[in-house]
Predict the structure.
Amino acid sequence: MTVAASRKAGSIETQPSLSLEVVLYALVVLLAAWLRLAQLGNYPLTDRESEYALAASTSDQWTAISDSPAHRALTGLAFALGGESESAARWAPALAGLGLVLTPVLLRRQIGRGPAFLAVLLMAISPILWTASRTADGTTLAALGITAAGFLLVSGRIEWSAAFLGLALVSGPAALTGLSSIGLGAGVFALLRRRRANPDGTLAHPIPKSQAWRRGLAIGTVVALLAATGMGAFPDSLQGIFKGLGNWVSGWYQSSGIAVPTLLMMFLAYEPLVSLAGGVGLVRRLRKGNALEAFLASWAVGAIIVLVLYVGRQPTDVIWTVIPLTLLAALAISPLLDKVFQPVSLWLAVGFTGAIVALMAFAYLQLRAGVSGPESFQMFLGFPTYFAAAIMGFGLAALTVILLAIGWSKQLAFPIGGAAAVLVLLAVGISAGAGLNFREPSASELYRPQANTLGLTALRESLSTLSRAQTGRPDALPIEMRDRPTPGLVWTIRDYPSFEGPGAPAIVLIREGAPLPGEYLGQSVTVGETWGWTGWLPPDLLSWLVVRDLPTAPNRWILLVRKDVAGVEELLPVESEP
């Protein structure tokens, strides 16, 4: 080949091209963005979210300091630019959650192209990561900071790693929980390396010079200050660092009331694929794996230990177990799919996988019919009949795999069965995530011990209607609170003035059950729910797993309006919330 031809060939090879991998990544990112941003403000904030939102609000009805300076500052900027709303309170966590989805790309060279893409996909549709990204607090900010910092450190990019770590350190108590998980994981990893006669590889990039560490320290400090103060706009947010530290320390001796078995069941129910595939990957990588894979497994073990020991545990703390297990699940699933979808047996694999999935779907529908009862079906055959049909469906799916192994090939049968299980568990997880995020909020979810219902939205609309009729403005009518309001209720009425004058107030809010004055018209409104059961697990576990049927305790308030207030006859009585 001539020199000119060689140069021409080289120029052709170096021309940028839109590869299939890039297209797939773009599609997954679009999917992740839609799942995290769609209908972000459609549902009320929970009481916990309301506390974070009120800390960033300009309202003087809530003066508590946020324990997440980064969320308070970034949300304060969002409020200043776009107005105070439920969606604005969730914007920073949603964008951080989208960034978290992309962190496995940082390990693309270390774990391989296929596992890295699978990890991104699994993170995009992970119900717990998906829901955490739509929750107004500092959890996903901390998760993004710590995860990205760790993965960048593996590649030796100290400055970038320090920048993300700076973000994490001002994101609240969740960051300290995450760092504790990684710290314990590092201890497990060190013990594991000692027991191995021939450790496979090193964990991190060769240690850089001290100048890089000094630059990293400076960059991390600057990023932490900028994130905690909103580019200097909210310097008072820095106080939240000490509050976050205090809240995290108190969580080691003040119980949240959430038991370890409850969180374990929550994890299995919402993350069935990551639980199974990630668990398999954890065992394999602890026994045999390179340094990075063994550390991911050790990180998962450390996160589980912290979850058990930390008595102030919250459902969001499970995120530190989900992240490493998702990467381990991708490492376990990738070779399985390589075995199944080979050109020689592609149509056979697709056909049998589809048949097994159809049988398992049939089994699930029978189980759902039996649990739902006669209210959902015109012909109810009784739970034992439906349960037997469900067992038959699962049995036929297993029998299909066994017969394929006997009559065709064991090397193909079991990967096909595994691929079918992956698809089914993936569908179960997506369904659980959709229920958590796009269904009317309720405390019937294990992930949500407390939820504020659409009754708060109806209450806000009623107050706005009364205020417009009386004053011409949507938020000018004074309100008197006869009981201590919940944070969610404070967030809803934050723009209304408090009644301070003599005489009878035009509007009174009081908890249900208190004596009602005769000169008022009123209506009961359910503003929230909490778990209505005791113990470690739901009372009817099967019913909860299939249809999310769980006892809840309503939080009802009475909206009282003086009879002479304009518009009250048309507005009340309004429909009561369930």
Residues 3-337 form one domain. The first strand starts at residue 450 and ends at 452.
